[in-house]
Design a protein that fits this description.
Blueprint (H helix, E strand, L loop, with lengths): L3 E8 L1 H19 L5 E6 L3 H16 L5 E4 L12 H4 L15 E9 L3 H13 L4 E9 L11 E5 L6 E6 L1 H4 L3 E7 L1
Parallel strand pairs: 2-3, 2-4, 4-5, 5-6
Antiparallel strand pairs: 1-8, 7-8
Helix pairs in contact: 1-2
Length: 183
């Protein structure tokens, strides 16, 4: 396994909070309200981020939008190389029918685009959404597929020997975004 050392902290807790609040405003603005809006957090760290965005929308709009958890494991194109994922498949928890819904996929780091491609396949299996958009806390570039994020907390140009690690209280015990250098 590769060793990683902390190169820098890209976002602290307050930076993350500001970025997620901004994303929540942008989502509502792009949808002209909350009608038919559904947030789906991509398992694992996308789930708490989606829940936070929903909380900010509720604070600002007085509407609680449905939030679900999307497991994309069986839709990945690299499952054979990720044995630990194959052994830990969770189940998607989608709070409503997605047919006709305006779905916003929420993830922590946007990199090659393969995770999002898998997420779109999973959504299509669950119903014919009116629209699918993407909200990410960090976009680090290096796309391999022609997919772009609609809502981005922060763009972080990075090298291939670097890793962007989003840490959330619910999983990691703290909120921050770190840039790690792989060795």
């Amino acid at each position: 396994m590769e060793q990683a050392t902390l190169a820098s902290v890209l976002m602290d807790e307050k930076d993350m909070q500001r970025a997620l609040k901004r994303i929540s405003h942008q989502i509502v603005e792009s949808q002209h309200g909350c009608e038919g809006l559904v947030l789906l957090g991509i398992y694992r760290r996308g789930v708490p981020l989606a829940q936070r965005i929903a909380e900010y929308i509720e604070q600002n709009e007085g509407v609680r939008v449905p939030v679900g958890k999307l497991d994309i494991t069986r839709h990945r194109d690299d499952l054979d190389t990720l044995q630990h994922l194959a052994e830990s498949i969770s189940r998607s928890e989608v709070p409503c029918d997605l047919t006709g819904a305006h779905v916003v996929l929420v993830d922590d780091v946007f990199y090659t685009g393969r995770t999002i491609r898998a997420a779109m396949d999973a959504v299509m299996e669950l119903g014919r959404a009116a629209t699918i958009q993407l909200a990410v806390l960090i976009d680090r570039g290096h796309r391999e597929l022609p997919i772009r994020a609609d809502f981005v907390g922060k763009n972080v140009p990075s090298a291939y020997n670097e890793k962007v690690k989003v840490r959330v209280m619910e999983i990691d015990g703290k909120n921050c975004v770190e840039l790690l250098r792989l060795q």
